Sequence to fold (138 residues):
Amino acid sequence: MKTTPFSSLSFSKKLAFVLTVFVMGFTSCRDSKEVELSGKCVKVKLVSVLCGQAVLHIEDQAAYSLGETWNNQANVFFAVFDCSVNEQAIANTTFYVELQTNPFQNDTCYRCMAAIDYTGEKKYYVRVSTKCGGGSTE
Fold:
């Protein structure tokens, strides 16, 4: 039998190597997805809102892949707003949000403990944006 440098390693070292390669591959794919989403603008409408959290309906068909079906509502996602949001100003309008996959830096406002019972998987940090599509539209 021909020996190779890899065949002389113990089973645990081989397993550690394979797991390391797997984890590196997984995290590099996730990071590229986060980079693609970071800063992406989406036209949305409020479904429900509570204490800086919301369920948003995607109004642009081209962005439907960012949402999911939740509580019989198609093309929605869970959002955590940055501190500057005025929930009353965006109620009953369509508006643009900038998506982030991580919390906004320097976003240190106080939030109440109430939470929306969202069981879906699509969750983003968002900021209402006027640079994306001209701001709020009725």
In short: Strands lie at 41-50, 53-58, 68-70, 73-81, 94-100, 123-129. The chain has two domains: 10-37, 41-129. Residues 21-35 have pLDDT under 50 and may be disordered. The chain is about 20% helix and 30% strand.
